[in-house]
Structures are given as C-alpha cells and as structure tokens.
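Students often ask why inverse folding is considered easier than folding. One informal answer: many sequences map to the same fold, so there is more than one right answer. In these notes we will look at a single instance of the problem. The structure comes first.
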C-alpha cells in the first residue's frame, strides 16, 4: 500500500492560479519569431521581442505556467546561495560580476514588467538572505557578502536575520523580490497575445528547421518565421546535445498555512542539507514554503522520505502546523555553473536556445530572454559572451563533463537492465515495471484498484522509466523526463507520451 503523505500533490502556485485557455495552433501562421515554451524564459523572450516591434508565436505543449516555473519557490533574486564564491573559483571575478549584473537587472526587469503590464502576481520587494548556522558556514557567508558587494550588489553581512529560529549570520541582499510565478506567467502571456502575436497552448513543437524562413511544425499547424527560440527548459530532440552539458537536478517543496504576516525576506541555508524558505500571502492566506532535498534525477532514492524531511523542517523550525501542498520539479544544472544562452549550436543561424538555468531561472531566465532578444534584433548585449551557449568551458568543467556523463551512462545502462518486478499487480497507489512478452510494461494500480499499463520505454532515448509513488509519476532516470500515469509528458526532454498497453 502506498504511504500516505501530508499535503495535496500539486504546487501552491498551480493550485491557486486558475487556468488559461489559449487555442492550439491549427494551420499556417507567419510571424517574425517562434518561441517554443511557455515558461519564464519563453514568455519573457516573447514579450521583450514584441516590445521591440516583432510579431511572435508562443508554442506551449501544455498550458502556460505548468512547467518548471509553475513549481518554483518564487524568489526573484541575484543572490543565489554562495554563487559568487563558486563562480570566482571556477571562472574569475569578472565572470561573477557579469552574472551579478545580469541577475540584478533581471530583478528590476520583472518588477518593471509587473508595473507596466499591471500584472496581479503578489510581487513583494523583500531582502533575500543566505543564512549560516554552523561556524564554517558563517565564514562562507561573510566571504560571499564581501564579494557580492564588491561585484556591485546591495549585499552585506548581518546577524539580524528575520527567521523564526536563531542563526549565526547571513548575507543580506536588499531590494530583491518574490512573486506568484504562475500568475506572473499568465500576465506575460496576456500581454503577448494580440496585435499580430499569439500564444498557442496544447501545441507540441517538432524540431525546428533552421533556414530562411525557419519552419516549425507544431500540433496541427506550422509556423514560418525569421528566428526560433527554444525555451523548453531542456531542449528536446537532441538539439545542441545539451543533455551532455546540462544535468537535470530535482528538488522538493512543501507548503502549509500559518497565522500572522509573512516573513520579512526570503531565505536559503548555506549549510547542508540545503533548506530554502519563502512565505507568501495568497488570496488573503499566509503560506510558508520549505524546499530542498535536491538530487541528480538518476539518484533519487525514496521521494516520500524526502518529503518527510521537509515536512519535519516546516513543522519543527518554521511552526507550520499542517502541510497543505507538496510538489517536486527539476531544472538543468550546467557543467560550469553558467546558463547556456545564444545560438543552438556553432552551426546554427536563426535557432536560439535558453537552458541550464541552474535552479535560479526566475532571474537567469529573464536575463537570458533579454540576451536572446538583443541577438535576434542584431544588437550587442553586455552579458552575451559570459552566457554564450557555444562557449568553450574551462578545464575544471571538463572533469565534470566526464563525471556527469559517466553517471548518465550508468543510469542509462542500469535502467535498461532494471525493472522486473514479477508478475503480481502493484498495490493501490503503487506502480511497477514488469515484462510482458519480452516488452517492459509500466503498470500502475490506482486507488480504486484499476490497473493502467503503458510502455515503460522512455520516448526520449529509450531508458526504462521508474515509478515515483510520492508524486504518482513515471520518471526517467537518464535525462529527467516525467510522465503522468496516463502516459502524457509532464516534463521533457521527451515530447511523446508513453503509449498505452493492454
Ligand atoms: C524546486 C525548485 C525551486 C526553484 N525555485 C526557484 C526560485 O525560487 N527562484 C528562481 O529564480 N528559480 C527557481 N528555480 C528554477 C526556476 O524555477 C527554473 O529555472 C525556471 O522556472 C525554468 O523556466 P523555463 O522557462 O526554462 O522552463 P519551464 O517553466 O518548464 O517552461 C518550459 C515550457 O516548455 C514547454 N515545452 C517543452 N517541450 C515543448 C515542445 N516540444 N513544444 C512546446 N512546448 C514545449 C513545457 O510544457 C514548459 O511549459 C527552482 C527550481 C526548482 C527545481
Ligand atoms: S531517455 Fe532521456 S529522458 Fe528518458
């Protein structure tokens, strides 16, 4: 019997946003730019392009805001834990300075768009903190505060940290923000749609043809355009071979209602296990979110246990009485710590990519959108070189390239040989991979005892999916595709459903 977990398995943001209802693409349309993906990266790009006079078509496989962005924590900040210390060590101080400038500008851009478009997304300007509980961590946050300030951020070390438990100190980065991510995306989509531009939902795009014009076949239609932006979190169909440079990393969140006002700031721990904290007022109720338990997708272990750790943290340290929501999602971690933004490959002409947002895509994705907008318009951008998707990565990341790809290869091989759970049916709420006539079949038994059988072969590159009982999903350990129990794609790089089986 599946273990009962606290909370509805749906993100607070998706649960409270209401829906969108843009039509699917049917027939042929002609625009300046096709943007594939209705997340923060795609929609920010689409609106920025529209504001420069371009017509755009946004192609979204599901609904706006239901991807990674709909499952984020919601911090809009240039302080990404201890990122500046990391970037200075793995690159140099100038690279860290450009990263800081791009992300701090992104915070301002988001706030400006919310004001200009009148988007009702609970935007709050708050300080963001990286806090330390141990002696070692306090040394690290002191160094990060000093460096971040030198790089031009409004950062300082402080011992005055507005958390409900004592800490030794923190980096405080002033004038950052938080928002309701799905409401923000819905506001962006609303601003994009109209005047020759359009948003199409339930429209899965095929690999674009890079030419003059570019052509994107999608759903029951086709887009002809001068440029294409692939903003699907991880590119699909092997485009740019980003699977080898960008590895999906999953994290978990729980959220519960509390009395009183929200905390005056957003927070992340410098110590391990990493904990991320945000509180928000949604429709008059105060919610506290606790996140963490991150891991490479191929090394998940017991997801229920991970939710249990976060729930314990929320109860014991944050005083959350009951967990109302729990969810997990994943984002691409680039080998050298910098997002990949620019042309899809060294030989691409008009097809651009945004990926590797390293779990900080609300700002990295926004900055990336501004870089791509400049590139499409033939303008220079001061951050483009550092984020260049076709950069030669430093020696340090060459070793990681080998390690990460060996791990993927091991996950691939492991997944091909795993998965014979015998012939018995799984218990209600459980799933298992079994073999029927030589074929691997993914069988899920729902709470009413009905069995649902699918091919267990991931439609991306053929690994065997695994059942995730805590999220009720079929997850691929190789590059992170996730499927619902009816087989539909929840997260790529797969674009095709798992076919049903008898
Ligand atoms: C647990 C967790 C917490 C996080 N918290 C924060 C935070 O507090 N602050 C922060 O800055 N970042 C955070 N991040 C990272 C941030 O949420 C992501 O970087 C960002 O949301 C990614 O946006 P995206 O546009 O790349 O992807 P998505 O939001 O996933 O958008 C991509 C879209 O493309 C669509 N798509 C895919 N394939 C196709 C296709 N073939 N055709 C058409 N459409 C397609 C998908 O349906 C999807 O809607 C967090 C990440 C995780 C994992
Ligand atoms: S084989 Fe790549 S995600 Fe499944």
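Output (designed amino acids):
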């Amino acid at each position: 019997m599946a273990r009962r977990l606290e909370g509805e398995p749906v993100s607070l943001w998706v649960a409270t946003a209401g829906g969108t209802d843009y039509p699917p693409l049917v027939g042929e349309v002609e625009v300046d730019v096709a943007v594939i993906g209705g997340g923060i990266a795609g929609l920010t790009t689409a609106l920025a392009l529209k504001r420069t006079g371009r017509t755009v078509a946004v192609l979204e496989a599901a609904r706006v805001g239901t991807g990674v962005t709909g499952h984020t924590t919601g911090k809009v900040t240039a302080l990404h834990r201890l990122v500046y210390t990391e970037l200075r060590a793995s690159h140099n101080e100038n690279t860290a300075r450009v990263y800081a400038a791009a992300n701090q500008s992104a915070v301002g851009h988001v706030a400006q768009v919310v004001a200009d478009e009148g988007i009702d997304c609970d935007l709050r300007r708050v300080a963001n903190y990286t806090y330390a509980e141990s002696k070692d961590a306090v040394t690290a946050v002191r160094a990060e505060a000093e460096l971040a300030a030198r790089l031009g951020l409004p950062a300082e070390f402080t011992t005055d940290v507005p958390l409900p438990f004592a800490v030794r100190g923190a980096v405080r980065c002033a004038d950052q923000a938080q928002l309701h991510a799905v409401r923000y995306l819905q506001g962006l989509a609303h601003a994009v749609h109209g005047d020759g531009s359009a948003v199409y939902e339930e429209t899965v795009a095929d690999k674009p043809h890079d030419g003059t014009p570019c052509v994107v076949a999608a759903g029951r239609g086709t887009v002809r355009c001068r440029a294409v932006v692939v903003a699907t979190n991880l590119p699909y169909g092997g485009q740019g071979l980003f699977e080898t440079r960008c590895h999906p990393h999953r994290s978990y969140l729980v959220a519960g209602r509390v009395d009183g006002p929200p905390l005056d700031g957003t927070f992340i721990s410098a110590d391990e296990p990493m904990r991320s904290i945000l509180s928000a007022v949604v429709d008059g109720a105060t919610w506290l979110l606790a996140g963490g338990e991150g891991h490479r997708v191929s090394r998940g272990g017991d997801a229920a246990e991970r939710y249990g750790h976060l729930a314990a943290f929320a109860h014991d340290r944050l005083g959350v009485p009951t967990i109302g929501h729990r969810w997990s999602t994943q984002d691409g971690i680039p080998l050298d710590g910098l997002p990949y933004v620019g042309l899809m490959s060294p030989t691409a002409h008009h097809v651009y990519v945004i990926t590797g947002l390293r779990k900080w895509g609300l700002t990295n994705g926004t900055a990336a959108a501004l870089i791509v907008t400049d590139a499409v318009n033939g303008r220079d951008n001061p951050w483009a070189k550092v984020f260049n998707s076709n950069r030669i990565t430093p020696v340090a990341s060459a070793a990681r390239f080998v390690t990460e790809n060996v791990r993927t290869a091991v996950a691939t091989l492991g997944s091909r040989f795993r998965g014979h759970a015998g012939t018995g049916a799984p218990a209600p709420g459980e799933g298992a991979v079994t073999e029927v006539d030589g074929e691997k079949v993914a069988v899920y038994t729902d709470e009413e005892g009905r069995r649902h059988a699918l091919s267990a072969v991931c439609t991306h590159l053929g690994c065997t999916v695994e059942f995730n009982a805590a999220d009720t999903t079929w997850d691929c350990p190789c590059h992170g595709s996730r499927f619902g129990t009816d087989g539909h794609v929840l997260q790529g790089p797969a674009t095709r459903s798992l076919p049903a089986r008898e």
